Amino acid sequence: MIELRNVSKTVVSGTEPLTIVQPLDLSIAAGEYLSIVGPSGSGKSTLLGLIAGLDVPTTGEILIDGDAITALDEDALARLRGRKIGFIFQFFHLVPSLTAFENVLVPLEIAGAADARDRVTALLSDVGLEGRAHHYPAQLSGGEQQRVAIARALANDPPILLADEPTGNLDSANGRHVVELLQSVNTARRTTIVLVTHDTELASTADVMLRMRDGQAERVTLEPEREAAV
Amino acid sequence: MTFVFRMVGRELRASWRRLGFFFVCVAVGVGAIVALRSVIQSVGVAMTSETRALTAADILIESGQPWSKEALALIETALVAEPDVTRTASIQTATMARPADLTKTVAKVVELRGVEAAFPFYGHFVLQDDVAYRHDLLAGGGALVRPELLVQLDLQVGDDIVIGEGTFEIRGVILREPGGQLGAFSFGPRVLVDHEDLLATGLLGFGTRAERQLLLRVPDARIDPLVRALRDPLRDEFVSIRSYRRTEDRIAANLRRAENYLSLIGFIVLILGGIGVWSVTRVFVQQRIRSVAILKCLGATGGQVLAIYVTQVAVLAVGGSVLGVAMAGGVMAAIPTAVADQAAAAAGLADLSYGLTVSAVTQGLVVGIVVSLLFALGPLLEMRAIKPLALLRWGLLPAGARDWTQIGVAILLAGGLLMVASWQASSWEAGLWVCGGFAAVAGVLHAVGQGLIRVIQPLGVGSRFAFRHAVLNLVRPGNQTRVILLAVGLGSFFIIGIHAVQANLVNAFALEIGDNPPDMFLIDIQQDQADGVGALLSAQTGRAPNLLPVLRARVTGVVGENTTLETVREIRRRGMGREYTVTYRGALEDNERVVDGAFWDDTPSDQAEVSVEESVRSRLGLELGDTIRFDVLGREVAATVSSVRTVDWDDTRSGGFMFLFRPGVLEQAPHSFIAFVRGPEGADARARLQRDLVAGFPNVSVIDGLEVIATIRRILDSVTLAITIVGGIALLSGVLILVGSVAMTKYQRQYDTAIFKTLGATSRTIMVMLVVEYGTLGVVAGLVGSVGALGLTWGLTRFLLEINWDPAPWINVSGLVLTALVVGTVGVVSSLDVLRKKPLSTLQAE
Amino acid sequence: MLALRWRVAGTVALCATLVGCGADEPFERPSASTAPPVEIAATDRGPLIVALGDSLTAGLGLDADQAYPALLHRRLRDEGYDFTVVNAGVSGDTSAAALRRAEWALDGDVCIVIVALGGNDGLRGLPADQMKQNLSEIVSMARARGIAVLLAGMEAPPNYGSTYTTQFRQVFVDLAQEFDVAFMPFLLVGVAADPALNQPDGIHPNLDGALIVAARVREALEPLLPALAVEAP
User: Fold this and answer.
1) How many CB atoms are closer than 10 A to CB B6?
2) How many CB pairs below 8 A link A and B?
3) pLDDT of residue B397
4) ∠ CA(C189), CA(C193), CA(C195), 5° rounding?
5) CATH code, domain carrying C69
6) Which of the residues B133, B217, B303, B599 has the least number of beta carbons within 10 Å of its own beta carbon?
7) Residue C201 catalytic?
8) What is the ipTM of this complex?
């Protein structure tokens, strides 16, 4: 359960204050699959950063499972992320000095999970990378890297998964594969997913779509038949 | 915690190649410290044993008169409390020795010394024909003599000589003698006999001029306390007490200088190593920004992240330090062969062992690890400021907000440095000079960095592509301009500084000795003897001697523009009441410089003119043209002050005179000459010269300083060699460290380079870009460094080493050029692999 | 003059030269304040008594007016004599050096010369016959100028052995006889080797010692004075 109350973000660019996210109230239910679409610079990535606690809102507060994350310090936020939030990035952001297996292992180790290694093996096989576990990121294709990233994001079985343009760097086949993975995660694990993309088609795979333009967010209700068509 | 260790292991495994740089940097720094400390300690030990050998004891108690009951009682009282003190007595006196064979009637003044079996506590006798010294050679009427005496008295080993009431058998010939005391020049050659035998000669009657000595061997830690304990109660007795460390002669001062210099180098190398580590860590951290952000995104806390990298640094520091010790061992092992020839020349080096000392190794390890961590802590703490948001927005570098932790670390770092300073440079003064110089140069470099960016910014518009981009690279925020400026500037500051100080010091030592130092000193040559003595010396030494006329004169009055002094009392009040030795000549000596007025030409004048030393001018408040009245042997001579000179008192091979007269007046006054000559080689030739001099000019006394000069030369040579070795190691490691810090910046550049290549820039263009960029940095850093080094050298020579400052401009200029060359070359060469690599692989790797 | 002095002197000198101590006076410790000559107003100059000597005469380590010639001068004045005693002592002078400057020193209205030399010869163990030669030339020169001579003897330090010290002592005795001059066998009689009367170097008299020397010299001058006496005012 994610709740945004009157959240806005204003930065000072040069001398002009620039509002990137206009005041916004938003509630994302547990297990909901929300997509945020909009052109570049519309504020969608900023919004995602705010939800993840990576950035601090200018006004308002953000609650995750009823706790105001805006009140937490860096380390508390880090621990919260480790427990509750998985991340997927456009540029994958795997740790280059770690193998695929170790990249997935890291969040489990941070959380102190007991059966970490078995779970990593399972996760890698879930994303279809059994054979690539001991390759370094540089030895993997973009699609493979992103699948490692997804496995890593899911490692602690977080209730929330945040994805920032996860297919932006992939060809359509790999992109589709990633989308399917996300959908199955949402269905199978009841994971709340917030997906940021500029691709309306991808966005429409979600339960709910939020369209952003010049910092304004507008909720778009999707037609059930379109949902069925995908 | 296991997570932290696992991460450390993985990172080290994956990026060992890059970390290798860091590793090597630490190793070079630690290696330099260990090697230098070891040399310094060995030299210290050698110097200590040399200085100890000068007195042959730890403490020397001397009296020119027979020991009084009171003095002996006081000495006993002080020694009762010192169970570990060993002592031996010695007596030294000038006396006459003549052959027992009465057909040989010549008598000769000798310097007789009586010693006991325990003598010497330190140092060794070297006797002719490799005979080992033992007291048996003296006991029961034996004597050891200098070779000159044999020649002068026409004697051989086995013959008898008569001294006072005693007859002694010559049992050996002394070539080198410990405890000879550099300061004590004598009118005759040494004769060494047993202490008891000397007492039996009957020479020590009432009124005898003899020096009674008590030599003490004392545990190191007790030396100074015991000296104090003795001095205080014996204040009223005519007794002198000194430790071997307090020998108040020039040689001790020079050894102290060398020690100061060496410990200073140890300290500076430490800072250099620290700078290297610091700049490497910075790059290391910058490369890890993304990984840190990811780890934070995955839930790692700031503490965990810090722990991961601090541990990595610690592991590398330990490894690097160990490697450094190994390297130092290798270097030290190489030294003896490298300097074998010189070592053979400077026989004193035989005592000098170039091995690693345990304390140097410990020190190196501790310093390597502590300094790595201290210097790395700053950049590592920046990691705390890395926000995971960087993963969403590229280019978000840590904000410039004031971070109190970092300021705290800076203070910790400064404090740590000072602590290490006090440890390494045993002198706080030296530490302060270096730290002050460090801070000043760092400040200047920072300002220059800012200034440089501002000044060259306009150049970034309109010029050629390569040039423009070089400028843009220099001014772009977050680039390496300031880092390189700081690292290279400080580096060249210290390297050039060390080298210039070394040149100054070695120069000072060379001055002390000179190439052909005079080793015979003749006094009391009368005017009518001057030609004869001169001819004899020329014939036997092969060089025309320099005879210095000396007269005694007192200042009795001054009639001047500002000062008029009528009475002797007034003169005395100005501290000029004593009798001065004056001379006259037509030209300046090398160690003199006229600072005011004009020096006379070579023609004599019957108008008395005098050139005064600077200090005389200030004491008497003189102006040019003032008149000084002198009393020269009862006659008044009024001389006009026509010039003011400075005299380099450190270089008095030609003597130094407060008052120097123009030729033409004093020639008429009775005076004598002194002469400094380089005597002929070989004991026989020297003895013959002395004999002939005494035969022809009986009043002339010859003081032979050969052995003294040889000792001084031996010590200074080995010290100079040690200093050169140390300076060389410091220079080499300094350059290596600089190379390391510059080379490291290539990792920041390779992405840009790849993009430029993708966009069609040729390797040539990129090369030009690199040359301009690194060349500019090198020139600016070298400039600041060499100017700073001038200041450092000035301060150190003047205040710490107390020697003359020679700005040695060529060192600074070549230092500047070399810095620019090194930075330019290393900058370009280290980027060559990037140039050769296909851009795609670089881009993908990023 | 003398022994210790010479040791130190040689040390400083060589050290200054070879090792570069930076002292300008090869013969003397820089700290020693030597006695400047007695200041005599030009109008006040009576007939001269010249004290030709070494550092014992120069008053090494004493103030100008504490050297024995100055004390002698005052003493003579107090007694009503019009003499001016000139200090012609040069520290470090041997008999050979003094011979060379005797002409310079004896220039002017000199009526008596006090020859107090030999200390440095003895300290350096210079040949006694050479010293005798030098001193006899000095005495002859004075004689030739009609100057009365007081010869003050000196002792060589015992460390040179009795052969030398005996020879040395005999030089003065012989000279006094040969030239039939006023003679005091030892300048420092009653002063030498008494710590209370000497400076810490054990060689040079302190003020108390110098007073005794002046008194002894005054006594030794007695035979020369009547002939020259100027009426006491």
Assistant:
1) 16
2) 92
3) 45
4) 120
5) 3.40.50.1110
6) B303
7) yes
8) 0.75
